[in-house]
Amino acid sequence: MKVPLFRRLSISFFVTVIGSILITSLISNDMIDKRFNEYLSNEHKRKITKVISLVEEIFVQEMDLQSVASYRELARVAILEDLYIEIKNPEGKVFFSSGREHLLHKKMMGHMSRPMMGMGWRKSLGQYMEENYSLTKDGKTTGTLIIGYFGQWNLTERDVGFKDTLNRAFLISITAALIFGLMMSILLSKQLTTPLIKLTGIANEMREGNLTVRADADTNTLEIDQLSKAMNHLAETLQQQEMLRKRLTTDMAHELRTPLTTLKSHMEAFIDGVWEPTEERFADCYEEVERLTKLVGNLQNLAKLEQAALQLNKEPFDLSQEIIKITEVMEPQFRKKNIPIELDLIQELRVLMDRDKIKQILFNLLSNAYKYTHEGGRVEIKLRKEDKGVVLTIKDNGIGISEKDLPYIFERFYRGDVSRSRETGGAGIGLAIVKTLVEAHGGKIKAESTPGMGSTFTITFPQNILSA
After folding, report:
1. What per-residue confidence (pLDDT) applies to 246?
2. Residue 391, pLDDT score
3. Cellular location of this protein (predicted)?
C-alpha cells in the first residue's frame, strides 16, 4: 500500500524526536541519579563524621555526659540530622539516647506522603540501619557510639522531595518535548510536501497536454526549488519540441506538395493530350522526382542520427591536415563567391576520432558558411589546444542568425528562413547532424551570432580524443 509522503515524513520526524528524547532522558537521568547518589553518600558521611566529632569532644570533656547542655546538644543534632544517637559505656550500659520518636514520625510521614503526592514517584525512606563506632581516649576504649537512620544514605524529606521534583521535571519535559516534536514534525512535513503536491499537480497538467503551465514553488528548500526550475525547463523544452513537430509537419507537407502537384499536372497534361511527351518535359518530371527522393533521404538521415554515436570508427590521424584537405576540396566552390578561407591551425595535432564523421561535421559547417555569407565575405577556421581540450572554431561574416532562432538551430528540421528558399533553406537537419556527431565524440558545440555581422560555431573536444 502506498503511503503519502506527508504521513511518512510526519511519522519519521516524530519517531526521530521520540528516540532522541528517550536517549537523552535516559542518559541524563542516569548521570544525574549517579551524581545525586554520590552527593547523598557524601552528605551521609559528613553527618556521621560531624556526630562522631561532637560526641568525642563532649565525651572527653564530660565523662558522665550528664550535663543538660551536652544532652540537649546531642538531642538537637539527632533531630536535625534525622539520626538516632546512643552512647554506651564499656560495660554496655546506656548512658545517653536521643530517642527514636522523631525517626518513627519521619517513617510514618514518609509512607503517608506517597499517596498524597499522587504521582507515585516518591521513594520509601528505606529500612532502619545502625552503625557502631568505638570511642577511645588515650588509646583506651571508653565507650561505643551507635548511630541509627532509615535508608542507605539517611534520606531527608528535602532529599526525597528534591528527587520527586527532579523526576516530575523529567516527566513534564518529556511530555512537552513530545508535543513540540509532534507539532514540528507536522509543520516540517507540511512545508516539504505542500510544494511537492503543487509540483505533482503541475506535472499532471503537463501530462494532460497543458505545456503552458509553469511551476512556481514558493519554498526555501534548494532541492525543491531546483526541481521546480527543472520542470519549467522540461515544459519549455516540450513546448518547443511540440512547436518544432508542428512546424516539421507543415514544412514537410509544403515540400512534398510542390513536386507532387507539379508531377500531377504534368501527368494530367500527358493523359489529356495537352502536352506532347518531349524530352524536356520528362526532364522536368525527373527533377521533381529527384526532389522527392532527396526529401526521403533527409528523413532517412534523421532516423540515423540516434545511431551515429554507436557507429564511430575511431582511428588516429592528423586533424590539422584533415581540415586543410577539406578546405582545399571546397575552395573552388568558395572562390565562385570570392570568399577566402583563412586558416589558423595548430600543426601536427593527432587525434583518435572517426575521420569520416569529422569530415561530415566540417563539410556541414562550411556549407552553411558558404550559403549564408555574401559574395566578397570571408570564413575563418581556427584550431587550438587548450587545457579543457581541443577547440575548433568556424567563423563567417554572413547574414547571421536572429536571436529568436539561435536557441533552436540545432533542432531537427528547424529552419530560421521562413521563406523556405530552396537555395538557402535546405532541409534543416545539417546542424542537428553536426551536434549529434560532436556529442558522439564527447564534445560540445555552441553558436554565437549577430544578425548582419555573421556567426561563430565553436566545437570543444575533450582531452581524451588526443592520440599519442
Report:
1. 78
2. 95
3. Membrane
Same domain for 16 and 161, yes or no, is yes
Tell whether 203 is covered by a domain: no
CATH value at residue 224: 1.10.287.130
pTM of the predicted protein model: 0.50
Q: 302 and 330, same structural domain?
A: no
pLDDT digit string, tens, across residues 88-131: 888 888 878 887 776 665 555 554 444 433 333 344 556 778 88
Are residue 265 and residue 287 in the same domain, yes or no?
A: yes
Q: Are residues 57 and 158 in the same domain?
A: yes
- Tell me which residues of the chain have a pLDDT lower than 50: 111-123, 418-423, 425
194 within domain boundaries: no
Q: Would you state the pLDDT for residue 258?
A: 77
Please, which contacts does 294-301 make with residues 24 or more away whose CB atoms are closer than 8 Å?
294/427, 295/252, 295/255, 295/256, 295/427, 298/427, 298/429, 301/429, 301/433
Say if residue 221 is in the same domain as residue 284. yes
Question: Domain check: are 317 and 296 in the same one?
Answer: no
Judgement on whether residues 170 and 21 belong to the same structural domain of the protein: yes
Residue 363, domain member (yes or no): yes
Q: 159 with 16, same domain?
A: yes
User: What domain range includes position 231?
Assistant: 211-311
Q: Residue 444 domain-assigned?
A: yes
State the pLDDT at residue 168.
83
Residue 422: what pLDDT? 45
